[in-house]
Amino acid sequence: MIKEYNVKDDFPPVDVAVANVESEIEVNKKFGDNIIKIIHGYGSHGVGGAIRLALRERLKELKQKHIIVDYIIGERFTTTLVNNLKINSNLKAELLLDYNINSFNSGITIIIIKDKK
What we know:
The protein is α+β, with helices and mostly antiparallel strands. The protein has one domain: Ribosomal Protein S8, Chain: A, domain 1, CATH 3.30.1370. Helices cover about 40% and strands about 15% of the residues. The protein has four helices and four strands; from the N terminus they run βαβαβααβ. The chain has a four-stranded mixed β-sheet with strand order 1-2-4-3. The protein is globular.
């Protein structure tokens, strides 16, 4: 199941929003969730854009450190990209069923926390 987390609830400062996502990753690792969809907005009201950019930069670092498996920015969340991911077929199936797939939604980012074995 894909867990959703709306990071922009209560309009936190950027650093708090990014720290909240990192905490969410850790919590979901403990509970066995494999995928989180982060709703951060795309910046139409001046809030989501800064969070989106900072969060994606941090996710790049977390991927390099092998803390997360991968992440997918909403604009690239397509069936083609998901089918080409090197992840378990069960995770692919979950992602392919998500209602945001092929919507090119820049207000979300998908985080793959761990691959099901």
